[in-house]
Each structure stands twice: as C-alpha cells, then as structure tokens.
Amino acid sequence: MKVTLQTLAEKSGFSITTVSRALAGYSDVNEQTRARIKALADELGYVPNQAARRLQSQQSNTIGLVIPLTDDFSDPFFMELLTGVGRQASTYGYDLLISAHPPGDEEMEAYQRLVSGSRVDGMVLARTHINDPRIAYLKDANHPFVVNGRANVDDFPFIDVDGFRSFHMLTEHFIDYGHRDIAYIGCPPDLGYAAARQHGYEASLTDHGIPINQDYIVEGDLTKPGGVAAAQRLLALNQRPSAIIAGNDLMALGAMQVCRQQGLTVGEDIAVAGFDDIPLSSHADPPLTTVRQPIREIGYQLVDMLITLIRGDMLDESQRLIEPTLIIRASSGKPLN
Amino acid sequence: MKVTLQTLAEKSGFSITTVSRALAGYSDVNEQTRARIKALADELGYVPNQAARRLQSQQSNTIGLVIPLTDDFSDPFFMELLTGVGRQASTYGYDLLISAHPPGDEEMEAYQRLVSGSRVDGMVLARTHINDPRIAYLKDANHPFVVNGRANVDDFPFIDVDGFRSFHMLTEHFIDYGHRDIAYIGCPPDLGYAAARQHGYEASLTDHGIPINQDYIVEGDLTKPGGVAAAQRLLALNQRPSAIIAGNDLMALGAMQVCRQQGLTVGEDIAVAGFDDIPLSSHADPPLTTVRQPIREIGYQLVDMLITLIRGDMLDESQRLIEPTLIIRASSGKPLN
DNA sequence: AAAGTTATCCAAAACGTTTTGGATATTAAA
DNA sequence: TTTAATATCCAAAACGTTTTGGATAACTTT
C-alpha cells in the first residue's frame, strides 16, 4: 500500500505536477493548496521514492567509503572516520555507502562498481599509498573524491594531520625533557605520510644541534610485533637511546614491552612515545605519550570538501593540514635533571 | 559521455529490448547477436544505471545498518559487525548503507528514512533494548530485519551469542579453580541480554550447591567507571569475593584497577573475568580472562538470514544462539589448592 | 478597453531500466 | 501444401520523480 505523488494527486484533486511542486516549496502554488497537499501527504505518510528521484536528478545523493578488510580485529581508526563521515553526510542529506574488501584487486573492483555504476556521487579515501592506484583511477574517471592522508603527489584534495608537526612536537617534547639520544621507529616508506613524519623528527634534532644518528632510525611495519623487533635492535646498540619515538602507538606498545622484558622501567629508565592515541594507549602501563589526530573531525571536514566538489563548486583550499594534539602521559617520565 | 541501453541499441542496430535481454542472458536472443552486443557493451564500458534498475525492480539491493553515535571513541564492536555485514552483503551483490546517529529520536528518524524511503530492502539491528522501539517500528512496517541480540520478546529473527552459556562457562571456570565466593557485576536490566547472563551465573552456582549471595550481585553500566564503582562496593564487603565476573570487559578492567589500588594482585589475590574480548583485554596487566563472541561471523550469518527474508523465503531457523569461546588468561590466576 | 502582469495550475517529456505481449520469419510436422 | 512450432526480434508500458513550457483566469496598468 504505497503512497506516491499519483496517490496524492488523485486524493487531492490536483495534478501530479502541482503536488510535486507544492511539496518542493515552489512559489507558483497557492499557499492554501500547498497546506492541503502537505496535510494529505502527512496523513498518508508520503515518502518520496529515492530510486525515482535519483533517476530523474541523475545523482545518488550518496557518498562511498571502502574499508580495507584485515584478518585481525578491525581498525578503530576506520570506525572513527566512518562515524565522522556518516554523521556529516547525513546533515547534508547524503547517504553513506560502505564496502569492505581485502586490499588488492577486489578492492579496486569495489571502487569501480561504486563509481561507474553511479551508486555514489563521491568517494572518501583513507590510508593512501605512494602511487595509489585508487587515486589514479578516480582522477582518470574524473569522479569527485577526497583523501585522508597524503601521497607523493599533491594534485588532489586531501586532509591530513600534519605529520611533520606531529613528530617535530614529539621530538621537541623529549629534547625539552633533556633527552638527546632519541630513536625513531619509522613507517613503511611506501605510505604517503612516512617521509613527512621522519622529516619532523630529524628537523627537531637539527634545530637543537643534535646530530642525526642513523643507528637510531629503524623501519617498522606499524604492528606491535614490528615494534618489538625494532626496539630489540635499538636496545642492543652500544649506546642505547634514552627515548624512543614510534611511528604509531601499536609499535610504541611493542617497544614498551621489550623495555620491560629487558628490565627497564618505562617512564624512568627510558621514555617512549607513539602516534594515534588508540584507546589502548591510555590504558597501557604506563599510559603512553602520543599524538592525537582528531579523526572524527577530519571525517566532518572531508565530507564538507567532498560535497563542495560534488556540487561543482570551487574548493577554497583543496589541501588542509590539521594541527595535531600532543598528549603527555607517564611513558614520558620526568624531565631529566 | 554516458553509455546506456539506448546507446548500445543505436550502435548495434538492435532494439533496446533485445540489448537488455541479450545482456540479461535470456534465451530468446540469438547467440551471435548476444556476442556482438556483449562485445559492444564491453568496448563502450556499459554499466547499468542503478537508479533505473531500482525504480523498475522496486528494490534497492541495499541493506541498512544504523550505528549509535557516542561521544567517546567509537565502539570496536560495531566496526567488527559492520565489517562482517559489509563483506557478506557484497557477496550477495548487495550494498551496505550506514547511518550514524546519537540514540534517541534522531536515531528513529534515521530508521524511518531508510525504511519508508525504500532506500534499503532490509535492516540489521544490534544492541537491542527491552521494548526496543526500533523493533516495534520495523515489525509494524513489515520490513525485513534481523537482530543481533535478544530482547524480551522472541517473535523476530535474531542471532545472539548464548549469554546463559557464556556466564555459566565463566562461573564454572572459577568454581573449577576452587572459588566459591564469586561476585557478579551485571548489566543494565533494560538490555535484552542482561537477564540471560545473570541466570547463567546463578545456575552455575546452584549446580554446585553454592548459595546465591545477593551482596555479590551488583549492577553495572558497562563502562569502566561503572566497573570501578561496582568493584569498590564488592571489596568493601565484610567477606570480599575471591573472584569477580563482570558483564563486559570494560567493567572488568575497572574492577582490576580497583583491586590494584587496594593492594590486591589480580591473578593471585583475586581473580577477574569479563566478556567481549575487546582488544584492550589481551594487552591488560594482567591479561584478562574473557569470553569471545565471533562478531564478524555473526555479521555473516545475519546477512544470510536477512537476504533470505528479503527474497521472501522461509527461514529454517529464525533464532540462532551462537556458542561463545572461553579465553583463559592470567587474570584467572592459578587453581586454588 | 486593450495590453501587460501576476497567480495558479497542469500535460507531457525525460531519466534508464525491465517486462509484457505480440510480430515476423523460419523450420518442422501433418 | 497447410498448419503448428520455434527462433528471433521489438514497440510500448511501467516504475515515480522533476522539469519544461505553456494555459487560464484574475488583476493592473496604460
């Protein structure tokens, strides 16, 4: 028993056109008729059919987001991002379409399905790589999209937390506490943000006249075991670092674990910091110093940008760097005297 | 520059009907023409317009999921569920529509938008309450839906981890380790699963002839501070419990914190267990004994059920209880001698 | 009074698909 | 040779909107 414009037209005695225009608020319909039609629509519970609308308007009023599927527990980062994106989308009257796929070919197919099937008007991307094929595809298809995170090129709209600033801040923090032997567990170099982060770390050292010690720079893979392996190498050095900055919290937690195993008390004998502020970090023992990126807020802003693009308007700034927040916890220890 | 059936018809010299039927695999089109048309479609990159399809077929090929928005960090549970649901949906060729809203009126509106706007063919619900208005609405609208978790009534399709079994198992586990003074921090009673869980706990005690001590049963609110408050009450008792079972991991972690503050070593002086197996639990100190529910798997099965309903087929079993997994970690301590 | 405005309405087209109900030509059966 | 069956095709309708391009009547202005 579904109610369409047709139904309303018959019951009200007006034409489909008038009903449609009355409901849409056009000025060429008598206020009295409009009131009558609106009342009738309410009474019968009229809800416009989306498919018909989309067919006619040639847009889906939907934005898409593909989340990469991993075997282990899903990434809280994406949940936050998704929450932000979904929330903001709905304030614009847009729906959010989700697709979960293991990275690789299947993921690319998902993008194609969403984009060329015109299921979505725009896409939100996250976790970009260098030479990301998804970006290439979307640019080529000339389909609106926004990205969280940078790649090696900058000719598309993105929002990123300032990786340089973040690691500059962390390093400053430790230098401020009197450390000079500060190690860095980096990110896989094919990740868009890897370089900026390392530069932030190095720049801070250089600012303070501390030479960059290549032994103190090791690469990690963003997992906890990766952090363990990296920290083991660092602690085996002749002169071990007095502070470790990891490219994310998971690796930092791995590093903390190694420290404990080797009899070092984190926050006293050695300082450790991470990046992300995952929920685990505040509950760790000791709680982990880290940098927080306002993921949900980023989600909001991504949608703002995307909708602007979808509407064909110009973006006032198509690249935004977000200021991160330093969160100092017990893993920093006390300033050395 | 979009390619429609019209385009293919003109270029191939056949009618729109024939092109459509050729592509759809109908037998009333010559194999040779079919081949020609298919080749042409490939060449021009034809992708059927979803909106038109949906309008014609009167279904959206989409399922919906509303996630409740909270102020703090998003719930990993929903991320897992969403991953499972999204994955399975795509194997059926269905899309997944997400809506994020703070619980309450706005949430209900989201359901209405999705359902009566026929944006989705079916809904997946989670975290149900007693007398859940969403269930009432969906039943009333006669719209296909499946639920993760039970409410007080059973006249709708759901999948739930067996709460009775879970807490029975946990209690058995502690009794097995020699405990008799086992406390229970419960869930808010308006949650659908609260009763079953407490029954599981009580039944296990009764099975072993241990009287149920009402002082050992306190209500929690599923948050960590709630666990703290509950544990403080328990530890203030004349005869404090030797083991605490909490209704979820978060409360268990809160309880562990209280124990530590009062000089008790969890895993030696007192045993603690939770439910959920959130990522935090395995990293806690000591790691927390808990019960895991296979959330992603539940997501798969929910979609199976939902699609069956959407197709109008009968469900062979419209209520499923899933067997939980007991995960014993150091917070259980050693068997008392 | 004629011409121009304004307010209010609507028929028909368009969006791109699928389905219905034949039409036509070809082949097989009577 | 006539009739029945089969293979292959297609025009038109339908799905529910929005938009286009007027039509009509009622006022206003010259």
User: Main interface pair?
Assistant: A-B, 43 and 43 residues
* Order of SSEs of chain A: HHHHEHEHEHEEHEHEHEHEHEHEE
Instruction: Sketch the major β-sheet of chain A.
Output: 6 strands, parallel
What is Rg of chain A? 26 Å
What is the molecular shape of chain A? elongated
| Share in β-strands of chain A | 15-25%
Please state how the strands of the largest beta sheet of chain A are arranged side by side: 2-1-3-4-5-11
What is the CATH topology of the largest domain in chain A?
Rossmann fold
**Low-confidence segments of chain A, ≥5 residues, pLDDT <50?**
none
> What is the subunit organization of this protein?
homodimer
CATH architecture of the largest domain in chain A: 3-Layer(aba) Sandwich
Helix content of chain A: 40-55%
Explain the overall architecture:
The structure is a homodimer of 337-residue chains. Chain A has 337 residues and is α/β, with parallel strands linked by helices. Chain A folds into three domains: 44 residues, 434 Repressor (Amino-terminal Domain) (Orthogonal Bundle), CATH 1.10.260.40; 129 residues, Response regulator (Rossmann fold), CATH 3.40.50; 137 residues, Response regulator (Rossmann fold, 3-Layer(aba) Sandwich). Chain A has 13 helices and twelve strands. In chain A, the strands form three sheets. A six-stranded parallel sheet of chain A has the order 2-1-3-4-5-11, with helices on both faces. In chain A, strands 7-6-8-9 form a four-stranded parallel sheet, sandwiched between helices. In chain A, helix 11 links the parallel strand 8 and strand 9. In chain A, helix 1 crosses helix 2, helix 5 crosses helix 13 and helix 6 runs parallel beside helix 7. The interface between A and B is large, with 43 and 43 residues. The structure holds a DNA duplex (30 and 30 nucleotides).
